[in-house]
Amino acid sequence: MNRNNIPSCAAAVPVFRMLPDSELIKLGEAMEHRHFRKGEVVATAGSVLDRLIVVARGRLNIVHTTPGGREQVVRSLGPGEFLGEMALFYETRLDGDVVAVEDSAACMLPRKAVQEVLQHPPAALKLVEEMAKRLAAAEQLIADLGLRDVGQRLAAELVRLMETATEERSPTTPEGHIPLTVPIPWSRLAAKLGTTPETLSRRLGSLADQGIIRQLSGRKLLILDPIGLKRIADGGS
Question: Between vectors from CA 49 to CA 43 and to CA 51, what angle results, nearest 5°?
Fold first, then answer.
């Protein structure tokens, strides 16, 4: 059987890629396809999560809202990413709203169907690996929010992006300067960093004034002083 004919929601998830076609077909038969418009709430905070939600198209954000109305994006999920892995083991309630930030499509995989395929050791091991990565990311977010101010959090995020950047330098780019494109809109980056777009803009301007970065068009930046950026991220001035 051609794997291209297997439902993309199952075949695109890294956890399931090593499964035999027969198991992917079972998942495809068990899943429910859903479509959401931009701004639509997929699931509300406090509701029971009893399935795996796999993003097929678009993007879903998990948003925490404080009593004062301030929103914090704690996770952002794109195609192939999923939510609800903890619900595979015990009854879980969402601690934030799940919101479509653009027109999106998702597949809902019932707990029982996923538990059956996790009897395959490679899939189970991959799930544990994914959960460990998310725990590490959550711990990093908590540390950033608690120990760093907005400028330091921005610098730390740019350092992380810089260290994984794959953009090629143009022939005219000076040695030591690093081109970087921020992969998400500025408004989403602001929410991720626990601040407002206006404050984020001011902090970017401050980094530019210090000669740390140069703002180009759109979300493109040129890191002029990588060492200085790391120093700010670490709490230096």
Answer: 105
* Average pLDDT, integer, range 135-154: 69
**Euclidean distance between CA atoms 113 and 29, whole angstroms:** 9
Cα–Cα dist 111/88, whole Å: 5
Measured distance CA(146)–CA(114) in Å, rounded = 36
Question: Sorting pLDDT into bands at 50, 70 and 90, what band is 194?
Answer: confident
Same domain as 43, residue 25: yes
| Number of domains comprising the chain | 2
Q: Are residues 153 and 137 in the same domain?
A: no
- Tell me, yes or no, if the pTM score tops 0.85: no
Residue 209 lies in domain:
149-233
Whether residue 141 is found in the same domain as residue 60:
yes
Amino acid at 8: S
Rg of the chain, C-alpha, whole Å: 20
Q: Note whether 137 and 159 are same-domain residues.
A: no
CB–CB of 63/74 below 8 Å?
Answer: yes
Question: Is the four-CA dihedral 179, 183, 188, 189 of positive or negative sign?
Answer: negative
